Amino acid sequence: MSRFRRGFAVVLLPLLFSAACGGGNEPAASGPASSPQTAQSAAPGLPTIVSSGFGQQDEYAWITAVVKNDKGAEGHFVTVQFNIFDKAGALIASESQTESFNRPGETLAIGTQVTIDGGAKVGKVEPTVVIGSTTDAKPFPEVKATAYKIGTQEYAKDRYTVTFTVTNPTAEPLKDIRVGVACFDSGGKVIGGSSEYPDVVPANGPAVVKSDVIVSGKPAKCTAYVGAPV
């Protein structure tokens, strides 16, 4: 069963930068779902929003951003804030999700589930990423997630379950890791996702992770990004 956290707001139009409070007077960066930020436009120290998007099924939506630590943010909390708009362009909800970076070059799918009231249909999401305070977590290894499989759910043929194998490279069991899932259509657009928190991944061994994703249509592929517990 997916777990998620709630929060506040932000942006998915062309890249804009503004001051935001994270753990001090840190800058914020926003980026579009369709194109990555460039080195010239990214503020120093801020991660890159590689892609973002949403999936919706009935009143539930999954909003997510794929974010890369390419500016030395390891050892810090990272929050993505989302503004959610309907198809007419009206702002209908705002949410946020916080995770943490633990190594250089790490990429995470940072997302959360949202209840959309009144039968509204999501038209777009606009994400903004901010860096928070430092964490007291131990360094977290790179955990590979491979061999994904997309299958239909038994009692809902338009709903999908994604299965991954995650492998622990360390000599100690890993507990409560976060597996963020981003799903894409055939054109590479983010169309939803999910997150899972397996209780244990055995030392030097694999574990199977299954996740019921919230998506708009059948995914062409889904990618799992494994991060440390927060």
Class by SSE composition: mainly beta
* Main sheet record: 6 strands, antiparallel
Report the average pLDDT across residues. 83
Number of domains: 2
Anisotropy-based shape = globular
Distance between the termini: 17 Å
Kindly estimate the percentage of residues that lie in beta strands according to DSSP.
over 45%
Number of alpha- plus pi-helical segments: 0
CATH architectural designation of the largest domain: Sandwich
CATH topology value of the largest domain: Immunoglobulin-like
What's the helical proportion of residues? under 10%
The SSE string, one letter per element, is EEEEEEEEEEEEEEEE
Q: How large is the radius of gyration?
A: 17 Å
- Can you tell me the CATH class of the largest domain? Mainly Beta
Number of strands: 16
Low-confidence stretches: 1-44
Question: Can you characterise this structure?
Answer:
With 230 residues, this protein is mainly beta. It has 2 domains: 17-134, Immunoglobulin-like, CATH 2.60.40; 144-227, Immunoglobulins (Immunoglobulin-like). The protein has strands at residues 17-21, 25-30, 48-57, 60-68, 76-86, 91-100, 107-115, 122-134, 144-153, 156-167, 174-175, 178-184, 190-196, 200-201, 206-215, 221-227. The strands form 4 sheets. It has a 6-stranded antiparallel β-sheet, with no helix packed on it. A 5-stranded antiparallel β-sheet has the order 1-2-8-5-6, with no helix packed on it. A 3-stranded antiparallel β-sheet has the order 3-4-7, with no helix packed on it. The radius of gyration is 17 Å and the shape is globular. The two termini are 17 Å apart.
